[in-house]
Amino acid sequence: MKEQNNHTNHLDEKNDTSPGIEPGMLETVVKQLCKRNGDASQFIQKERQYHSLPSRVVIDDVIEALRSILFPGYFGTSELTLDTLHFYVGSTLDRVFRTLKDQIKRGLCFVCEEYPVVDRCLECDEQALSITKSFLASLPSVRRLLLTDVKAAYEGDPAATSSYETIFCYPGVLAITSYRLAHELHVLGVPLIPRIITEHAHNITGIDIHPGAVIGESFFIDHGTGVVIGETCILGKNVRIYQGVTLGAKSFPLDDKGKPIKGIERHPIIEDDVIIYSGATILGRVTIGKGSVIGGNVWLTHSVPPGSQITQVGAREEVFQNGEGI
Length: 326
Known about the structure:
alpha/beta; serine acetyltransferase, domain 1; globular; UDP N-Acetylglucosamine Acyltransferase, domain 1; five-stranded parallel beta sheet; 7 helices
């Protein structure tokens, strides 16, 4: 007896007996959506149809492959031994190199103002090759940083039974891994792809770290949901933050056309050994001094000196009788 397939493809329903779409209606909608001078023209690479866009699916696969190299045995195949490790890492890196180079070139071509000039296209290809080589060369340094983050997660959370658990299970470690890879690409001048990487991690973990942020070693995000770290943030060593923390911009200066000015330093500087508890919001280019502790739900828009302890005004409990105090 044939095994029944319970999977249903709702876009290819063969037994649908409901009334069909009216003749010509589908064609009308297709024409409206694809009109050359309509809305569609804004999204088709400014009429540059010679190269495809970077693929989110392919980039996600590349990051998973890199994760299996940085933490071999934890991600990807789990049957690795010291005898097979060298071959696995080498073959995976070879695949990552070829795939990532193609994706980086797509990103470069997409933002290139001179494309599709042939000479410029060749330049993008050479630039993609150089960037990919530099990125792969940075991976040992990235792993050294990540090992400090893993150690910080284990030592910073009494619920962690081992550093292995933090690698397998902690959303903060996953988000930081994606951030550190994306940051290397960002520093190398790769467009689009770093944001694709961090936004994928954001979607999974609820932790939003811009790839442009600069974050020192031994960084720990506990729980993590709702954390936001802006583009121009600078975080020192041994910083620990909890869920719901926002390191954001206080305001957005506008140009003479009323549009936000890009790239200005507008996010906080967090010095070494700072702890920021859940729900705290720190806005603007302010400095949180070394060794400070920022309490939960605090709202800060000014700098604080090293060793500060900032908390909310304590809640008071008072008893009123016969309407007194109302």
